[in-house]
Write a structure and sequence with these properties.
It is a single chain. By secondary structure, the protein is an alpha+beta fold. Helices cover 51% and strands 10% of the residues. It has 21 helices and nine strands. A hairpin with a 5-residue loop joins strand 7 and strand 8. Helix 12 packs antiparallel against helix 17 and helix 16 packs across helix 17. The chain starts with a helix and ends in an 8-residue tail after the last strand.
């Protein structure tokens, strides 16, 4: 077998239900896909526990990463046709950056953000894991990391990875909408990409594509309220957070608490930023072995644990026994929370600290477009350039620029109280 034939074997074609056939663009991208860091994403659900509401939403971060690579290849081809200089090295680097952009996600994606390693975002963990890969591949990811961190001269490359119109958002809106079975996230990705251009080193949208951009922003807002922030999803994911918190408390005194090896490490170590800096490679090793299966396997075992609260939370998660959820435009009063907690203490014969695991409130916020960060620039044939907020004539763009907040309250359905 010749070297060329071995190389060609890496140019795989993947059949994707959202985009059709996806071509792996280079041998290096294929090698990254084969790495355990990427293969782990097959075992992490893209939308956490959203399948508790939309049963079809069981797709994974791995599928999303492939979809983002596909859209990036389309964007590169389009920009090159319009005269934008993108070298082969830059093309491979920006594709690697979008492929790896989610490797720092923990189990169930955003559901356990900062619960595994408090104070550390998945973006920070992504950079750490990318640096590990860079060492393993002999510096091959130097440029990809610079683009990912926005430290490269061609700023539009970073905008394609992380910006208002990046390939990440375009894929997840289409993919999440498809698997959830809702129409709200359906957008014209092909047209949007065709309307992209680069002017003065910045990513812009040609004026004739403005309506597609407006639909994109509206779709994003609707998907947040209809899918990502669906009140039952909020209840399920907060239940998961409470379960992990209780398991950490039990692990301090119960050395025999069952957990998979890597989950056990985080339950007992209580990693913070300081500990991460001191033992980075050890922490990253265990983090890279952690996925949804670790949590669910452990939760099934905890259903039989003598700690009643841990067993109750575990049983509720595995059997989908979710709390009742109320939402409001205003914060819920402490009086109402106290009434519910007192009722929980009485019904379940528990103390006030334990009742906090069953009765709790929080805040969710949604902002579809920020004119203060990476703005969307509209380019006209005359050479004029406008921010989307100036160019758009739809009445509700101003609403998309405002942060909308909702408060939620969760409590057991069987309290028997009319709250």
């Amino acid at each position: 077998m010749t070297a060329d034939s071995v190389s060609m074997n890496k140019r795989k074609i993947v059949n994707d239900p959202v985009h059709g056939f996806i071509i792996i663009p280079t041998d290096f991208i294929f090698d990254l896909l084969e790495h355990p860091y990427l293969q782990r994403l097959r075992r992490i659900k893209q939308l956490g526990l959203t399948s508790f509401v939309y049963p079809g939403a069981t797709h994974t971060r791995f599928q999303h990463a492939l979809g983002a690579v596909h859209l990036m290849s389309q964007a590169i081809e389009n920009l090159r046709l319009k005269g934008t200089d993108i070298s082969e090295e830059e093309a491979e680097a920006v594709t690697a950056a979008i492929l790896l952009h989610d490797i720092g996600h923990g189990p169930f994606s955003h559901a356990l953000e900062e619960s595994i390693i408090p104070g550390i975002s998945h973006e920070s963990l992504t950079v750490m894991l990318m640096n590990n890969l860079n060492e393993e591949f002999g510096g091959r990811l130097n440029l990809a990391i610079r683009i990912f961190n926005n430290n490269y001269s061609k700023k539009f490359l970073h905008q394609l990875v992380s910006g208002q119109l990046d390939m990440d958002r375009m894929d997840y809106l289409m993919r999440d909408s498809f698997y959830a079975g809702v129409a709200e996230g359906t957008i014209g990705t092909e047209r949007i990409i065709k309307m992209l251009n680069v002017v003065n080193g910045q990513l812009v949208v040609e004026a004739k594509g403005i309506y597609s951009i407006e639909k994109f922003l509206i779709a994003r807002r609707l998907m947040y309220w209809q899918v990502y922030y669906h009140k039952t999803v909020i209840a399920a994911e907060n239940l998961l957070v409470k379960l992990l918190k209780r398991a950490k408390e039990i692990a301090v005194t119960d050395a025999g608490l069952f957990a998979t090896a890597s989950l056990n490490y985080f339950l007992k170590q209580h990693i913070r930023k300081k500990e991460l800096e001191a033992s980075r490679q050890e922490v990253l090793f265990h983090f890279a072995n952690l996925d949804d299966d670790d949590i669910m396997a452990s939760a099934k075992s905890w259903m039989a644990h003598p700690d009643r609260l841990l067993s109750t939370l575990s049983g509720n998660l595995t059997r989908r026994i979710l709390p009742r959820v109320k939402t409001s435009d205003e914060p819920f009063s402490e009086q109402r929370l106290d009434e519910l907690r007192n009722a929980a203490c009485k019904k379940y014969e528990m103390n006030r600290q334990e009742a906090d695991y069953l009765v709790f409130s929080g805040l969710i916020a949604n902002k579809a477009y920020s004119e203060k960060s990476d703005t969307i620039r509209i380019s006209y044939n005359t050479g004029e350039m406008k921010d989307l907020s100036e160019a758009s004539d739809i009445f509700h763009l101003q609403n998309l620029m405002e942060t909308k907040k909702k408060y939620f309250l969760c409590y057991p359905k069987d309290l028997g109280l009319n709250y």
